[in-house]
Amino acid sequence: MRLCTLAAAAMVFAGPALAQDPATMMAEIKNADGGSRGNATVTWADSGMAVVTLDLMDVPPGVHGIHIHETGMCTPPDFKSAGGHLAGDHDHGVMSGNGPHPGDMPNIHVPESGALKVEYFISGLTPQAMADEDGSALIIHDQPDDYVGQPSGNAGDRIACGVFEAAE
């Protein structure tokens, strides 16, 4: 059943632009029906590395690509409003000679329970890039990322999305 225009407009998940660089950003990850699938947190260490923590639930079991996208908007059902990956001046994927994008992350391997908690260290991901005037979002894809395909690793449809906002 398709959402009517008014209902779809009411389900746009968007956050405000941020006035200053945050030390920590958080996103509630939701599916196309608006159901929560958990949270993502990004914290910047003094070393400059970003620590990304995912605490997920009710995600379909299997291997999924997961990326930080360039626009802080999550309009269901396809979440294309989040734009492409947060790319900087790099190609997609750790297997690419000019990669990876700052928003590229390792695939998640979700067990049958649908719950997963994991932490990643990412270099090149900055608060300035994530908190620019149109923000950023985390996308979970239906398929695994192949770590080389352009521009997004052939990771398939977008099945969940969350807009990053400064943590309080």
TrEMBL record:
GO MF entries: copper ion binding
Family annotation (PANTHER family): SUPEROXIDE DISMUTASE CU-ZN -RELATED
Domain of life assignment: Bacteria
This protein's record includes keyword Signal: yes
TM segment ranges: none
Residues in the signal sequence: 1-19
Native organism taxonomy: Bacteria, Pseudomonadati, Pseudomonadota, Alphaproteobacteria, Rhodobacterales
Record-linked Gene3D superfamilies: Superoxide dismutase, copper/zinc binding domain
Single GO BP term: superoxide metabolic process
Protein name: Superoxide dismutase, Cu-Zn family
Cited Pfam families: Sod_Cu
InterPro entries, A to Z: SOD-like_Cu/Zn_dom_sf (IPR036423), SOD_Cu/Zn_/chaperone (IPR024134), SOD_Cu_Zn_dom (IPR001424)
Family membership: Belongs to the Cu-Zn superoxide dismutase family.
Swiss-Prot/TrEMBL keywords: Signal
Domain spans labelled Superoxide dismutase copper/zinc binding: 38-163
